[in-house]
Amino acid sequence: KGGVEDAEMRRTFNMGIGMVLVVSPEASSRILGEEHGPCMPRLIGKVVKGEGVIYK
């Protein structure tokens, strides 16, 4: 409705993710397996070699 492209919205606004940790695959397995109370961790992506950003 506002004429703002999806990519611009993602670049400009938080879009709902409060905090992001970038960790090794081994650490992510450990973190996801622990209890965290009301804040449940989620795997939201991975870093791969290449150019650009791909949203899925």
Automatic annotation (TrEMBL):
Keywords: ATP-binding, Ligase, Nucleotide-binding. Pathway: Purine metabolism; IMP biosynthesis via de novo pathway; 5-amino-1-(5-phospho-D-ribosyl)imidazole from N(2)-formyl-N(1)-(5-phospho-D-ribosyl)glycinamide: step 2/2. One of its GO terms (cellular component) is cytosol. The keyword Nucleotide-binding applies. GO terms for biological process: 'de novo' IMP biosynthetic process; adenine biosynthetic process. The keyword Nucleotidyltransferase does not apply. It holds the Pfam family AIRS_C. Residues 5-53 form the PurM-like C-terminal domain. It comes from the Eukaryota. GO terms for molecular function: ATP binding; phosphoribosylamine-glycine ligase activity; phosphoribosylformylglycinamidine cyclo-ligase activity. Its EC number is 6.3.3.1. It is an enzyme of class 6 (ligase). This is phosphoribosylformylglycinamidine cyclo-ligase. The lineage of its organism: Eukaryota, Viridiplantae, Streptophyta, Embryophyta, Tracheophyta.
